[in-house]
Write a structure and sequence with these properties.
5 strands; five-stranded antiparallel sheet; alpha+beta; 57% helix
Length: 244
């Protein structure tokens, strides 16, 4: 990707993220745009976002692939890894060589290496001292992200954080909790919908998600809403009727 094209894509992504900063925006869709942009524009091979629920435990809400999802789920299960540290400290955690990560991260290290990832950067999603989750960027090679990519990723995370918190959520803690819980519940429904589409059409999970997302976009509906209708069997998607 040339520098000119990259800059244009960065501007386009910020415009997409800014467009969601309105009432009725879909939190999960916002975060999916964010992780996809980190993969497509920045130096990440895969990306995922973890948000804290009302019990302060991190849960996966958006990811670019099943591979990154597996790594982060194992990281959560072990309660040890770069995203846990970034969430706890509020600082960016960069691991240029996953194979040399600390012993207490062994479950994360083994899973990541097995899936072909060599380095990871975890970026806290925070506004001032309020941390709500982490953006995690995985790369297949060794070495940290380019400084320009890291700067852009931090800016993406800041925009998404503002979109989730907003002023009314900051003023009223119960609204923030409800919004985060809604995002987590929505992702559970989306995972169920992916299973429905994968089973119905005999396709891989990643392809099932793209089918759901394409339908939501082509019909100007929210990702969460389409997923809920699929799970309740109110909707059946014919992939052949979707534009490529």
């Amino acid at each position: 990707m040339s520098a000119i094209v990259r800059e244009a894509e960065l501007v386009r992504t910020f415009a997409k993220l800014a467009d969601t900063l309105v009432a009725e925006y879909d939190v999960v869709d916002l975060l999916q745009v964010l992780v996809d942009s980190c993969r497509d524009i920045l130096g990440a091979s895969a990306a995922g976002i973890l948000l804290a629920g009302d019990d302060d435990r991190l849960e996966l809400v958006a990811s670019t692939s099943e591979a990154s999802r597996l790594v982060e789920l194992i990281q959560l299960a072990a309660q040890a890894g770069p995203c846990i540290e970034a969430f706890g400290t509020g600082e960016v955690v960069t691991v240029p060589r996953i194979s040399e990560s600390p012993p207490e991260w062994s479950a994360f290290r083994e899973s990541a290496v097995e899936l072909g990832f060599g380095a990871v950067t975890a970026i806290p999603m925070k506004l001032r001292e309020h941390i709500i989750g982490t953006l995690n960027l995985l790369v297949t090679g060794d070495g940290p992200l380019e400084e320009s990519d890291l700067t852009a990723a931090r800016a993406f995370a800041d925009v998404a954080t503002i979109g989730i918190l907003q002023e009314r959520s900051i003023r009223r803690g119960e609204q923030l909790t409800a919004q985060l819980q809604h995002a987590l519940r929505s992702r559970v429904i989306i995972e169920q919908a992916k299973g429905v589409v994968a089973h119905t059409h005999g396709v891989a999970i990643d392809e099932a998600f793209e089918i759901i997302r394409a339908y939501a976009r082509s019909h100007q509906q929210s990702l969460s809403g389409v997923a809920a209708r699929l799970v309740s069997r109110e909707l059946v998607i014919d992939p052949r009727q979707l534009s490529s």
